[in-house]
Design brief:
heterodimer; A: 690 residues; B: 502 residues; alpha+beta; MetI-like fold; two-stranded antiparallel sheet; 6 strands
Chain lengths: 690, 502
């Protein structure tokens, strides 16, 4: 097997803070021409640092202290910087996670691609324009001759990522490094981009180093997989071996931590703790503190590579001795992981929250006198209801108005029309002071745990804020500051922290001292502090790693079981929906297109959009029957939604009637309905509720 | 009584300011978590060195704030004591020789002769030569021979004196510290020397040593010479520089105090409430900004000048007139200079109000006032701190520019502005008179630099995300790991409380 990229014993150190961080610590891997190699791991494991080391684009604090990187026999670390410039973009290209930030906003697309071409190819002006056009057509940009002279802001996120890929392909590289290429994109767009990458790889025969944390993407794309943990690779296998027989406990636990339909009634396996700080010296296995199969020697002996079969290697003591012992312990693992928590939801059929025909329109103003020239219809006539103790998931792509619904229910954004009734009380139109009694019943958890806690307040102050604002209202007088009441309040805080799984003494700390998962726990504790009945969870796990996501989902589930909370779960992650939700509402461009019980919608989606959305989700299990329904184009602007059914320009089944008027609801069962002309309108109902 | 105390307007405001500072200190000491935050200021070596110098400037400024009118020797008809019309400060009394020993005109630093030749009568003949100074080097018989030896001797004496005072202070301090940490004197000295203390005592002591050496040296020399020379009318430049410190501090702090409420309140309100509030505030500051500020200040100060001149009965001394003009200058500077900070704060608040923790606070029904005071204000404080300290040097300079136009402080008041203004002509003459400008420059430079460094340390300390205790580590040299761990051991205990992750 000839090799394209060979990395031997790479060590990259970041000189930040008090002691050097060994971001990459003895990494060895080889990539063959034309293969897709996936580097998988949680954030902070050194994946991106590996990619930047290969490109020699490390930040100023970074330094490669040892090792060898060679591409096609050229040792990259021996090259001078001028020599390296001939490699970048020509032999190795890179695409980054955030397409919005990777393009220069003041240069046209053509100018940016021309930059790469000028550097590496000696082309005449005409030839260069022709090449740019060809590249853009190759990545599927429609109307390339015209659009190549447009600026990045005129492109959508998915289109920008296509442009980035075109730029990366301009020098016809042998190796493409894709650093989380689809993480910032929606599922349907992700499917498009992944498909494009596969396509181009087949055409050009280039190798791809795919860096990702998403097991689904790995399963779709990779031929070989390396699992990275705390700066080193712990398992190396072909895709088939990895997904069928993961050997390293970390890989096994990662799989177990994934939420999904099959695990609905059990707690997810949790990998305790966090990735250890890479600033320390490791004397044993790096995973030992979080491992559920740790052996005594794991603490003091660094594990070596053990070969399982031809191309399957693992760095774990479990496989050092006889295979039988390993198998035995692996079995016990299987037993350990399945510990079912009996779930007896305290659900009743009382409708807790009822939203009817909610509309949130943002005016677009123009001109000197700020005349209103149009409206962004972020939410355009949404009705839904949530029963006590139940979970309604609101699913949709970014920009479809999910978050706006959540905020307008809480009256953080003033709804334009419609009604929000909470326990028979109308919330729309109430004044700030009138809303205060309801506030304690309705709470929200935000997506970004880094932005949702005030960095200058201690945890105790953060938690007390809600209590002071609302409890004070309930008892009438706030300033009853005797020592006894202060003590009882502190006890209350301790109990809250323990409920979300944090020790009580953390209340004296500041938020920056916590990891993302811990911060999200604090955010949950803050919401719980006022004993809400309904929690609006706005993508609470999308900023977290898989293992931490499992911790938070478990916590939310146990809170629902114990406290009878109802959730409005806003997310784009279908796996989480399948794991947690009772009912699902699928949103498209400000409206709900399909609504039903989780089983009904997931196993029998009716609306073409739901079908496309579900089919676009990358799956771990190879499913031969699976057929991705490709969605062309992007989400239209909510300022000027398409006439008729909003989905008709992207729909494979669009009929003339779809362009004429918005379809009314068709019911398939008492709970399942969709807005689509494909289904008979006999069971027409005016709304979801009967 | 041999004096009658006088409290001028700016004095009162300074006393108020000092009282506020003392109240804040008292409040912080009573609240443990605030105390812990402020203690972090003490971790910065540059900040604490800057504070040492700042304290010197503040002490000079405060001494110059205590004003009184000394009693005159004779009494009036009714037998009451008459007080001088001249208002003196404690500083004036302390450095009385500097104030009273006035030469004829320019003389270079440490000179024994005037800077310009003049015709004098010597032994009955008219000679054109450099005349001897009346006070500077007056004790010398033959300045040409004894001059440098005398200066060296005096300087050495001063340095020795400074070193002695420093040693006494140093020994006292270390003895106290070592008793507090229950260690012996010598080991604790080594701890300080190796910079293993939480507060960077070594840096403080070194700064103090330098400061005391300079002060000692200057004090020794100032008895017999004009250390920084004299100005056109023969006044001692060192005295002028010392007197200027108070004016600079007053302009820097009082203007900021006047400006801050406008900038904070209006800026945050504009960003937080948006809508028509934002429109109104934006129009106000855009309008105010579009008026040339020098014009506005000139108009206001001249109006004030007219008022002062038409109401002479309101002022019993020249000092109180000059003081009122200074106060008015501060006010008008404050009113014209809040727009920049206000705009900055509006922008920052616009960003902050969309953050999720503010949204979460809204979801709890927290009142607008509490959101502003608990969430927004602490998170814009760093901008306020940087902007005010940066403004400080700008304001001192603005005073110089205004003095040049003639609308600055009262001409009878000594300030860096008037010194720089005078230096304009001195620099143009031949031979050049450079010492006045140099003195003003170095005093201002030291003051502004130390204020900046200290503000930097405060800002770092108040941001909980920044670690103030730096752990000095050996670079990763393989094979020396054990030593590396050992070196960190004493600091590990100090940082234990801030180490993350349970």
């Amino acid at each position: 097997m000839n090799t394209l990229l060979e990395i031997e014993n790479l060590e990259t150190v970041l000189h930040t803070g008090e002691s050097p961080v060994r971001a990459v610590d003895g990494l060895t891997l080889t990539i063959s021409p034309g293969e897709t190699f996936a580097l998988l791991g949680e954030s902070g494991c050194g994946k991106s640092m590996t990619a930047l080391s290969i490109m020699r684009l490390l930040p100023d604090a970074g330094e490669i202290v040892a090792g060898k990187i060679s591409i096609g026999g050229t040792d990259l670390l021996q090259l001078p910087e001028t020599g390296m410039r001939k490699i970048r973009g020509k032999r190795i290209s890179m695409i980054f996670q955030e397409p919005m930030l990777s393009l220069n906003p003041v240069l046209t697309i053509a100018e940016q691609i021309a930059e790469v071409l000028q550097q590496h190819l000696n082309l005449s002006h005409e030839a260069m324009q022709a090449r740019i056009r060809e590249l853009l057509e190759q990545v599927g940009i429609p109307d390339a001759p015209r659009r190549m002279h447009e600026y990045p802001f005129q492109f959508s996120g998915g289109m920008k990522q296509r442009v980035m890929i075109a730029m990366a392909l301009a020098g016809e590289p042998e190796l493409l490094i894709a650093d989380e290429p689809t993480t910032a994109l929606d599922v349907t767009i992700q499917a498009q981009v992944l498909d494009l990458m596969r396509h181009i790889q087949q055409q050009k025969g280039m190798a791809i180093l795919l860096i990702t944390h998403d097991l689904g993407v790995v399963a779709e794309m990779a031929q070989r997989v390396a699992v990275m943990y705390a700066g080193e690779i712990v398992e190396l296998a072909t895709r088939h071996d990895f997904f069928h027989h993961p050997r390293h406990p970390y890989s096994q636990q990662l799989f177990a931590a994934l939420p999904g339909k099959q695990k609905r009634n059990q707690a997810l396996t949790v990998i305790q703790g966090n990735v250890p700080s890479l600033a320390q010296q490791f004397s044993g296995c790096r995973f030992v503190d979080r491992c559920n199969q740790a052996l005594p020697q794991c603490r003091d002996t660094v594990p070596q590579w053990h070969s399982i079969s031809g191309h399957h290697q693992v760095r774990c003591h479990l496989y050092s001795g006889n295979a039988a012992q390993a198998a035995a312990s692996a079995n016990t693992v299987a037993q350990q992981t399945v510990h079912v928590t009996p779930s007896t939801p305290l659900a009743t059929d009382d409708v807790l929250l009822q939203v009817t025909d909610l509309k949130v329109h943002f005016p677009i103003r123009k001109g000197l006198f700020k005349r209103v020239v149009g409206h962004v219809k972020a939410v355009d006539g949404v009705s839904l209801k949530i029963a006590a103790g139940k979970t309604l998931a609101l699913v949709g792509e970014s920009g479809c108005g999910k978050t706006t619904i959540g905020k307008s229910i809480l009256q953080l954004i003033q709804p334009t029309a419609g009604s929000v009734r909470f326990k028979e009380q109308e919330l729309n139109g109430l004044r700030r002071s009138q809303l205060r009694p309801v506030r304690s019943q309705l709470q929200i958890i935000f997506q970004d745990p880094y932005a949702s806690l005030n960095p200058r307040m201690r945890i105790i102050e953060i938690l007390q804020e809600g209590i002071n604002a609302l409890k004070a209202y309930q008892t009438g007088y706030p300033g009853n500051d005797t020592a006894a009441s202060a003590q009882s309040r502190e006890n209350e805080i301790d109990a809250l922290l323990q409920r979300v799984g944090l020790p009580a003494e953390v209340k004296w700390r500041f938020p920056h001292e916590f990891s993302g998962g811990q911060r999200q726990r604090i955010a949950i504790a803050r919401a719980l502090a006022v004993n809400p009945k309904l929690l609006i969870c706005d993508e609470p796990t999308s900023a977290l790693d898989v293992s931490v996501q499992a911790q938070i989902l478990n916590l939310l589930k146990s809170l629902q079981n114990n406290l009878g909370l109802a959730f409005l779960f806003i997310t784009h992650n279908i796996a989480v929906v399948e794991y947690l939700a009772d009912e699902v509402a699928v949103m498209y461009l400000g409206r709900i297109v399909e609504h039903g019980r989780i089983g009904e919608v997931m196993s029998n989606p009716r609306h073409p959009y739901t079908q496309a959305l579900l089919s676009s989700v990358p799956h771990i299990e190879a499913d031969p029957a699976r057929h991705i329904i490709p969605l062309t184009g992007d989400l239209p602007s909510p300022a000027a939604p398409p006439a008729g059914c909003h989905f008709n320009p992207r729909c494979a089944h669009a009929m003339p009637v779809c362009r004429a008027a918005y379809p009314p609801a068709s019911s398939f069962s008492a709970t399942h309905s969709a807005h689509c002309y494909l289904y008979s309108q006999e069971h027409r109902t005016t709304d979801y509720e009967h | 009584m041999s004096f009658s105390p006088i409290i001028l307007w700016t004095d009162a405001l300074i006393y108020l300011f000092v009282a506020i500072v003392f109240f804040i200190v008292w409040y912080v000491r009573r609240h443990e978590h605030l105390l812990a935050q402020w203690k972090r200021v003490g971790h910065s070596a540059s900040g604490m060195s800057a504070l040492t110098i700042l304290i010197f400037f503040l002490a000079v400024g405060l001494l110059d704030t205590v004003h009184f009118r000394p009693a005159l020797d004779h009494k009036n008809n009714q037998g009451e004591t008459i007080y001088s019309v001249e208002v003196l400060s404690l500083l004036d009394v302390l450095v009385a020789p500097l104030r009273t020993q006035v030469e004829k005109t320019y003389s270079a630093p440490l000179a024994a002769h005037l800077y310009a030749k003049e015709t004098i009568e010597l032994d009955g003949k008219q000679v054109r030569t450099f005349a001897r100074l009346q006070f500077g080097g007056a004790h010398l018989q033959d300045p040409d021979k004894e001059h440098s030896a005398d200066i060296t001797q005096l300087a050495l004496k001063g340095l020795a004196c400074g070193l002695l005072i420093w040693s006494v202070l140093c020994v006292g301090l270390i003895a106290r510290l070592s008793r507090r940490s229950r260690q012996n004197f010598t080991p604790y000295l080594m701890v300080i020397w190796r910079r293993n203390t939480e507060i960077p005592w070594r840096a403080i002591l070194i700064t103090l040593l330098i400061l005391l050496l300079i002060i000692g040296c200057i004090t020794a020399l100032a008895g017999h010479y004009h250390v920084l020379g004299t100005d056109k009318v023969g006044q001692d430049i060192l005295y002028q520089s010392l007197k200027s410190i108070r004016v600079a501090l007053v302009i820097g702090t009082l203007t900021t105090l006047i400006m801050l409420p406008f900038a904070l309140l209006l800026g945050i309100m504009a960003g937080y409430f948006r809508g028509w509030v934002d429109d109104v505030i934006q129009y106000i500051y855009t309008t105010l900004n579009s008026i040339p500020s020098v014009l506005l200040i000139a108009a206001a100060v001249l109006m004030m000048q007219v008022y002062i001149e038409t109401h002479p009965e309101l002022f019993d001394t020249i000092a109180s007139r000059a003081d009122l003009r200074l106060l008015f200058l501060c006010m008008i500077l404050g009113i014209t200079s809040w727009t920049g900070l206000c705009r900055l704060l509006r922008g920052e608040t616009l960003k902050l109000r969309e953050l999720e923790y503010i949204q979460a606070a809204h979801a709890f029904g927290v009142s607008h006032w509490r959101v502003i005071s608990r969430h927004i204000l602490p998170n814009v404080m760093h901008i306020v701190l940087i902007a005010t300290v940066m403004d400080f040097s700008g304001l001192v300079l603005a005073e110089a520019v205004l003095s040049y136009v003639g609308v600055g402080v009262d001409p009878s008041m000594i300030s860096f502005g008037t010194m720089i203004n005078a230096a304009r002509l001195e620099m143009a003459r031949e031979p050049m008179v450079w010492w006045a400008l140099l003195a003003a420059f170095s005093f201002m430079f030291t003051l502004v630099l130390s204020a900046n460094l200290f503000a930097d340390a405060v800002q770092n300390a108040l941001d909980p995300r920044i670690r103030t205790l730096r752990q000095r580590t050996v670079l990763p040299r393989f094979g020396k790991k054990d030593k590396h761990v050992k070196d960190n051991a004493p600091e590990a205990t100090a940082t234990a409380k801030s180490s993350p992750h349970p």
